[in-house]
Amino acid sequence: MRISTLILCLVFVVSGFSQEEEKIKEKPATQMYQISDDLQYVYSRPKVFNFITGLPRNYANLGKEIVKKQNLKWLGLTAVVTGVLFAGDEKILAESQTVREFGVTEKHEYKILGGMVDVPTNTSAVMYHLGHGNTTLIIGLGFLTVGGLKKDYRAIHTSSQVLEGLLTLGFITQGSKRIFGRESPHAKTKPRGDWHGFPGWNEYMENTSSYDAMPSGHVATLASTITVIARNYPEVKWIRPVGYSLIGVLGIEMMNSGVHWSSDYPLGFLIGYAVGTVVTNSKITKIKKETYSNRLKGFDTNLSFNRVGGDNLLGVQFVF
User: Fold this and answer.
1) Phi, psi values for residue 316, rounded to 5°
2) What is the 3-state secondary structure (H, E, C) of 27-65?
3) What is the reported pTM?
4) What is the pLDDT of residues 71-85, one digit of tens each?
């Protein structure tokens, strides 16, 4: 993504957050949303720079979560899946190119809008942009607009969290790419690409495709965005299936265009999912009604035996 495009989008988003904060100053301190019969989400009045002030906490929480015993299985699963895909990378890459039979070209084509914004003009470019940072920013602006019009705290918070996830990812994905230093398919010097970790700054910037395949930043970005939206709107069941399908479309396109190997994706997805989860966990207050959540729907029966006036009586109590 062009730096000028990112700066322009950030200016619009920050300006939008500032305007919405002014409009809702007289509104309630919190808004409550009924997610299910026994679960409510509570959102505080949005603040303009929430997406920036939360960054240090996100990195700290990611560090804590990654070493938790219950999360080690996901690291292990990611490593196993990556290894399996790595073994078949060349074959999978060749198979992905069959999409060219349906008009999906190898080359991405764009036109420059206003001298700053890249606008996709062919199918492969549109598919590639599913994981682009500016697409995530546009999604965030959409939620901000809806939230502003409806004075909806949840939509405004979702917008802020989408942007916060994008900013959190930047350091992680770019740092990881430099650590692994894997060649992209179109720049490979050996089957499945060579690995040259920790390249110099200038070397990386001048020959980026020789070092930036692992992990996929596009997959991480789209996974984070989907996770944030799905966790804020858990009652909308189609978000994850549709979102994960789009990740699949994105993955096929990036192999077709020689940008990524299939084994670049599991780690990218894990990073994106983890960032989206950490961001939302720190922003949503959940209220659960235990009296309903601990009992199955329907009714319970309690039997009792009593002796009254020499007679044995059977009592039945129905609890709804």
Assistant:
1) -125, 125
2) CCCEEEEEEECCEEEEEECCCCCHHHHCHHHHHHHHHHH
3) 0.84
4) 999 999 999 999 999
